[in-house]
Amino acid sequence: MQDPVLVINCGSSSIKYALVPSAPQAPRLAGLVERLGAVDARLTGTDRRGQRVSRALNGAGYHEAMSAIQEQLEGLSPVAVGHRIVHGGERFSDATLLDDTVLRGLETISELAPLHNPANLEGVAATRRLFPVLPQVAVFDTAFHQTLPPRAYRYALPEALYRNQGIRRYGFHGSSHAYVSRRVDRLSDRPHGGWLIAHLGNGCSTCAIWQGRSVDTSMGLTPLEGLVMGTRSGDVDPGLHAHLSRRLGWSLERIDTLLNKESGLLGLSGLSNDMRRLEQAAAEHHAGATLAIEVFCYRLAKSLAALTCALPRLDGIVFTGGIGENAAAIRARVIDQLPHFGLRLSATANARTVAGQEGRVDAGGSHPQIWVIPTDEEAHIAAETRRLLETPCP
Length: 394
Ligand code: ADP
Known about the structure:
By secondary structure, the protein is an alpha/beta fold. The protein folds into 2 domains: 5-83 and 116-135, ATPase, nucleotide binding domain (Nucleotidyltransferase, domain 5, 2-Layer Sandwich), CATH 3.30.420.40; 174-377, Nucleotidyltransferase, domain 5, CATH 3.30.420. Helices cover 38% and strands 18% of the residues. It contains 15 helices and 14 strands. The strands form 2 sheets. An 8-stranded mixed beta sheet has the order 5-4-3-2-1-6-8-7, sandwiched between helices. Helix 1 crosses helix 3 (117-130), helix 6 packs across helix 15 (377-390) and helix 11 (287-307) packs across helix 13 (328-336). It is globular, with a radius of gyration of 21 Å. The site of adenosine-5'-diphosphate has 13 residues, from helix 10 and helix 12. Pfam families: Acetate_kinase (PF00871).
């Protein structure tokens, strides 16, 4: 494996890792540590030969988990570590070498993303201890959206909140939207045009892209704004907080938990946050699952329609993420609710998409195109890390 970059994505209870070689198609050693800090903490992944590995890590925290990941690297030495950092605020828009000054700056931004950045930074600290001489690079989820114009990123709130507190829309899933946008520019015969991307995983967001740059997106100050997600509500009336507080005496922490962990597909269905489970239950006439899928698709179609306002022209829509890549019926339902844009899905091509493969699923002609493109955030983070290291110092 040539000059691999170790990509690390630390969440509050998990660490995803991938050793990404410089050759794009070369096999990767990758995996996931789940349930950090719990007795049943476990590392699962694949080794260099594609064989599955699974290891109990009993109660491992970030540091023990990172050591276990290092042992899984089979003696391969990364040339650098690329970290996914969720929030870069307004200060960080490009990949940035992580030194003590940058880390101090990032700690101040953590207030903007209390559910994400502290975990990302714990991962950086553990990785720096294990690989003290390797360059460590931060790649921000917000970075790709730094090209949003003020009309898209400002909330209709008093100016001082923006100026003094950084209250604005930032957008997330930037590495995914950037990767998919570059791929569709390569694959389609309409490069650098107007594209909408629907990233549909556990977190979901849409993005409008004009000439390769993000011009609007559905997530905002935090990754809670916008679409219905696995356990996140997406948009609700901003008056809801005051209402729940007055009516039920709920604290802000309680409301935060409700909106981030108990809502979305899970809250609507009362069953699961997993789309596969919901599709199965809906087929068996489970009312909650049926409603959850209906609201998910309608809200997604509404978001895509709204984002066309950001584009001078619509060249096409791309679906990505676990749901976007695999759930043909969800794609069909969403496109069905957008009859005004001349989108025409090919039922055969849509049904025939193969997991993990890129493909076009519209009926052809001069209409806006419809693509399914598997996302690869790790490839983007590794590429940005390499780009930074290869840029000569000023
Ligand atoms: P994450 O945001 O955690 O990376 P993923 O991109 O893996 O999440 O997406 C997870 C979602 O994708 C889950 O809701 C899961 O049910 C859904 N999904 C995965 N495969 C399928 C499938 N074959 N059909 C429908 N949904 C699927």
